[in-house]
Amino acid sequence: MIETNRLILREWEKTDLEPFANLNACNHVCKFLPTTLSKLESNSLATKIITDLDKYGFGLFAIKRKDTKTFIGFTGLNIPGFWAHFMPAVEIGWRLAYNHWGQGFATEAAIAVRNYAFNELKLKELASFTTIHNHRSEKIMQKIGMTHNEADNFNHPKLPKSHPLSPHILYRIKPTS
């Protein structure tokens, strides 16, 4: 469990599945993903997330607001499920319910995970990537200290090159000494 001023990053609970399915069915949240997810697909993703937490000893944590005790999404670390020029890599990522956007929660959670990755897990680098159109996520990457080299941009290997979401930007960060 990781705590910030306003959030608890924790293992997943059964009660997270319903709000997670709602989050994954939201067109706003999934605007820069290939598709929204059905409840079955969302539950399958949650199962994979939980399995990966056990398998790797790190992963995508459920985020709960301290004030409302509400599940609002996830943030954490992930091993990307594809090969690209920057692999092997550990990705830092996030996905929050739309009604919790614009309040700094994603940045607050991502900073805590970044610190956990470098201070506790002793990782040497984190990567983060998104489609070139997702400026909100790109701003979070910048706010947590990640940097971008245009030469690192890539087409997502799981999407056809002609797909509008295929062009991706890559950000990286290493621990400071």
What does this structure look like?
By secondary structure, this protein is of the alpha+beta class. The chain has one domain: Aminopeptidase (3-Layer(aba) Sandwich). 28% of the residues lie in helices and 24% in strands. It contains 4 helices and 9 strands, in the order ββααβββαβαβββ. It has helices at 17-24, 39-56, 105-119, 135-143; strands at residues 2-3, 7-10, 60-65, 71-78, 91-96, 126-131, 147-148, 154-155, 167-173.
Structural class: alpha+beta
- What is the CATH architecture descriptor? 3-Layer(aba) Sandwich
Residue fraction in strands: 15-25%
Assign the CATH topology: Aminopeptidase
Q: What's the number of structural domains?
A: 1
**Helix amount:** 25-40%
Biggest sheet overview = 5 strands, antiparallel
How many angstroms does the end-to-end distance come to? 25 Å
Instruction: Give the spatial strand order of the biggest sheet.
Output: 1-2-3-4-5
CATH class equals: Alpha Beta
The count of β-strands is 9
H and E order: EEHHEEEHEHEEE
Mean pLDDT: 95
Total of helices: 4
Q: What's the shape?
A: globular
Spell out the CATH superfamily: Gcn5-related N-acetyltransferase (GNAT)
Computed over alpha carbons, the radius of gyration is 15 Å
Poorly predicted segments: none
In short:
Helix content is 28%, strand content 24%.
Keywords:
single chain; 177 residues; alpha+beta; Aminopeptidase; five-stranded antiparallel beta sheet; four-stranded antiparallel beta sheet; 24% strand
